[in-house]
Amino acid sequence: MSNEEQLKIKQKSYTEAMRYMHNAKETLQKAGKEDNYYNDRKYVKTACGIAYNGVLIALDTYLLLKGIAKTKGRKSIEYYCEQISKLDKKMLRQVNNAYEILHLSGYYDGIQDAIVVKRGFDEAYELIDRIKPMQES
User: Fold this and answer.
1) Number of domains, the chain
2) pLDDT tens digits, 59-91
3) In a domain, 113, yes or no
4) Residue 27 covered by a domain
5) At 37, phi and psi to the nearest 5?
6) Residue 135 domain-assigned?
7) How far apart are CA 81 and CA 20, in angstroms?
8) Burial (CB count within 10 angstroms: exposed 0-12, middle 13-18, buried 19+), residue 125
9) Which pTM was predicted?
10) Which CATH number fits the domain that encloses residue 65?
11) Which residues form the domain of 29?
């Protein structure tokens, strides 16, 4: 894959993943917050699910750019962890954190602790930044 093709893929996927994160932040604001806790679990669950989908876009793109062929069908967290562990151990920790916080605690359990949710969003942004197109000078 040429550098130009890689750049186009990065631009498209990064824009899409960031769109998801923007939507997730907007949804999270609807939850309302008192002290360090969100008031409405429904919006927290929705926001965390949207943010996690942004992470999945970034992971799929990252693996594609590393030459790992797409598999058909839905991929599991085990698939992502197995592939990422071969490439970058630090990134693997971030993937696990994003999965645990955003997908399990956020989306499934609706955790209302704002500090924990913020940490999940921070991990998401760090993972998405890995596919950020570099600006040429």
Assistant:
1) 1
2) 999 999 999 977 777 889 999 999 999 999 999
3) yes
4) yes
5) -135, 140
6) no
7) 22
8) middle
9) 0.92
10) 1.20.120.330
11) 3-129
* Structure token pair of residue 100: 């645990």
Structure tokens given for 42: 């429904």
Q: Show the tokens assigned to 103.
A: 């997908």
Q: What's the CA gap between 97 and 58, in Å, rounded?
A: 15
Residue 133: half-sphere exposure toward Cβ, Cα within 13 Å: 19
- What 3-state class would DSSP assign to 32? coil
Measured CA to CA, the distance from residue 113 to residue 86 in angstroms comes to 33
51: in domain: yes
Element (H, E) at 121: helix 114-129
Q: What is the mean pLDDT of residues 21-47?
A: 97
SS (H, E, C) 76-120: CHHHHHHHHHCCCHHHHHHHHHHHHHHHHHHHHCCCCEHHHHHHH
Structure-token pair, residue 102? 């955003």
